[in-house]
């Protein structure tokens, strides 16, 4: 397994990561997605990246495509965490071959950022990095990652090389990722690669912004 090393370009101001756990199970229920998200955050921490995980279903995130749907909508406070983070980790279980409905709702709420730009006219999420983590006991991880990457890229995120990690258990069985006695070596090494590439890319984008749109 490769040993993580803090890239020289991370000597700049500390990067921040936000992991959104899109499990369907409210706290304090066990969550395999929480475990894989935590492992991604641990790998990023080894590179000097501060991290936080939020279980989205614990918050009243209303359906819609606006930054604030009003009437007690709790997305605005999660949105601020998204905007404050250099790296977004979108973690989701697999249900019926697809990402969870919570993950889909997160992507729908991020759609509002398409109309938000910085002072130079760049999309407000341009210059930020996104990665995806998926768990499940059925097929679907590759399709989920592809769908998530498309949506995240559409709203401005940059996807690093090998910017995903997943674990699929045996189909129609009851062993979850959190039930494993140890992390599979392939998952662990993939998580380290994801973290290394995400931190490297986020540091580069922090120092070298995308060009502003031309008038």
TrEMBL record:
Ranges of residues in domain NADPH-dependent FMN reductase-like: 18-166
InterPro entries on file: Flavoprotein-like_sf, FMN_Rdtase-like_dom
Any matching Pfam family: FMN_red
Gene3D superfamilies: 3.40.50.360
Coiled coil region boundaries: none
SUPFAM superfamilies: Flavoproteins
Taxonomic superkingdom: Bacteria
Protein's name according to its UniProt entry: NAD(P)H-dependent oxidoreductase
Organism whose genome encodes this protein: Microbacterium marinilacus
């Amino acid at each position: 397994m490769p040993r993580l090393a803090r890239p020289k370009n991370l000597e700049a101001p500390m990067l921040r990561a936000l992991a959104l756990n899109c499990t369907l199970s409210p706290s304090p229920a066990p969550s395999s997605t929480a475990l894989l998200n935590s492992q991604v955050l641990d790998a990023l921490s080894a590179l000097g990246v501060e991290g936080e995980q939020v279980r989205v279903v614990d918050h009243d995130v209303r359906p819609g495509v606006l930054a604030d749907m009003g009437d007690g909508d709790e997305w605005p406070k999660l949105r601020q965490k998204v905007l404050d983070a250099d790296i977004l980790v979108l973690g989701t279980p697999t249900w019926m071959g697809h990402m969870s409905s919570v993950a889909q709702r997160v992507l729908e709420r991020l759609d509002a950022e398409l109309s938000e730009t910085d002072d130079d006219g760049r999309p407000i999420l341009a210059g930020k990095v996104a990665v995806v983590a998926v768990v499940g006991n059925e097929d679907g991880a590759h399709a989920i990652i592809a769908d998530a990457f498309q949506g995240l890229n559409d709203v401005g995120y940059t996807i690093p090389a090998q910017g995903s990690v997943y674990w699929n258990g045996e189909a129609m069985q009851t062993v979850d990722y959190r039930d494993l006695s140890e992390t599979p070596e392939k998952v662990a090494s993939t998580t380290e690669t994801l973290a290394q590439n995400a931190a490297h890319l986020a540091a580069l984008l922090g120092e070298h912004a995308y060009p502003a749109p031309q008038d």
